[in-house]
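Structure tokens please, single chain.
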Amino acid sequence: MRQTKDEFNIGTQKLVKLSGDYKVFMGKLSLPYMVEKLRNAISDDKLNIIMFGDEIKNFGNGFCLSASYYIMKNTGGEEVWTLMSGPLHWWLVHKSSGKIFDITYDQWSRYDYSKGKIETRIGKSKLFTNEIQKQSMFLAKYSGLE
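Here you go.
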């Protein structure tokens, strides 16, 4: 069942508040600010049409990897985060706390993070890495972060 925009916005506010608890490198933007901007962008039907050719089916679908990658690269990189992948999903694990940070957590009613593995293709597969960099930069520009 698709969540409502109001439910998604409530999830965004919870995630923004939670993101303030993570100890990360703060460059020009804070993690809570990035989360709010990225989540606002991924809930926009126009962005979904541009990226996927269709309106939103479920908020966050298709953006877990690009949003997680952008956050990782701009808040300390691989020294701070581990990028994880599982069946049809990507998220971050904060290295010093071990906590999961999933910017698109609410696209699933439940997700079994125990099935996750460290995403090893970043940096090893030029095609994969270039595509993710391109998507994350597009998402960041669309959201006003770049």
